């Protein structure tokens, strides 16, 4: 197992543990006894105000919590994956291009093979086909670029799901809270602020929770799109420079 995979799994476990501790705190807080060890741990990490806020949000906070763990896990994974993909293009080309011009393809292949990321991968795929001519190199680079693009696009659907589901679940909690408020009015046969306050509070908290989850995930999603675009540009530049070097070497 690679170091990148181990680090990603470790960060996901830490994030899940922290978030689930808050969820377990709610369950223990509902018990007659005073807060247990897990609740105290959650209050130590997040604060008693956050635990109470989660508890006051009602049942809708549970699926929102799940979406939070789901979304943040993919944010962490995607960040690590893209940081691993990014290389210094100028330094990489400064090593590869002179070797290609001198027809030292084996040395260039070794450098590309030992470099990380999609830029090195498409250059490596192209250099493997130098015996087949320029057309074969271009075709190999094109095919490798399509495969690398599919890897770069992984995780965006999951991030979009978290962005869309969190506020939707929050709005569902809002509707449930307003229904509770009107049920309280119907039962009391009178309109009193104290009667509807609990239901309205639930409605506002769940809406707030959904937006709190969706906004940062959307922010990171936009950053990741920008990073992917930059890597794609690097791939295009690298392929152009390598093909130009092959032309110059003839």
Structure overview:
- The chain has 250 residues and is mostly helical.
- The chain has a domain at 87-250.
- It is built from 10 helices and no strands.
- It has helices at residues 3-29, 37-46, 48-56, 61-85, 89-101, 105-114, 117-127, 134-152, 156-188, 193-249.
- Helix 1 (3-29) crosses helix 3.
- The longest helix has 57 residues, at 193-249.
- The two termini are 42 Å apart.
- Mean pLDDT is 82; it is low at 27-34.
Blueprint (SSEs and pairs):
Blueprint: H1 3-29, H2 37-46, H3 48-56, H4 61-85, H5 89-101, H6 105-114, H7 117-127, H8 134-152, H9 156-188, H10 193-249
Helix pairs in contact: 1-2, 1-3, 1-4, 2-3, 4-9, 4-10, 5-6, 5-10, 6-7, 7-8, 7-10, 8-10, 9-10
Highlighted features:
250 residues, mainly alpha
Question: What can be said about this structure in brief?
Answer:
The protein has 250 residues and is mainly α. The chain is 86% helix and 0% strand.
């Amino acid at each position: 197992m690679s170091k990148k995979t181990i680090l990603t799994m470790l960060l996901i476990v830490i994030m899940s543990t922290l978030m689930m501790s808050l969820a377990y705190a709610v369950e223990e807080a509902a018990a007659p006894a005073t807060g247990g060890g897990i609740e105290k741990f959650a209050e130590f990490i997040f604060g008693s105000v956050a635990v109470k806020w989660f508890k006051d949000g009602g049942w809708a906070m549970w699926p929102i919590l799940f979406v939070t763990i789901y979304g943040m896990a993919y944010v962490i994974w995607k960040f690590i994956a893209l940081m691993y993909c990014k290389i210094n293009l100028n330094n990489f080309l400064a090593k590869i291009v002179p070797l290609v011009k001198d027809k030292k393809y084996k040395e260039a292949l070794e450098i590309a093979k030992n470099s990380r990321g999609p830029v090195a991968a498409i250059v490596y795929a192209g250099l493997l086909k130098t015996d087949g001519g320029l057309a074969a190199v271009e075709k190999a680079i094109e095919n490798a670029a399509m495969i690398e693009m599919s890897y770069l696009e992984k995780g965006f659907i999951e991030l979009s799901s978290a962005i869309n589901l969190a506020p939707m679940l929050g709005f569902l909690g809002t509707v449930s809270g307003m229904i509770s408020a009107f049920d309280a009015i119907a039962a009391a046969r009178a309109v009193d602020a104290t009667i509807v306050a609990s239901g309205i509070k639930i409605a506002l908290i769940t809406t707030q929770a959904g937006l709190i989850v969706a906004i940062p995930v959307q922010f990171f999603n936009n950053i990741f799109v920008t990073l992917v675009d930059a890597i794609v540009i690097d791939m295009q530049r690298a392929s152009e420079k390598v093909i130009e070097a092959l032309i110059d070497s003839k």
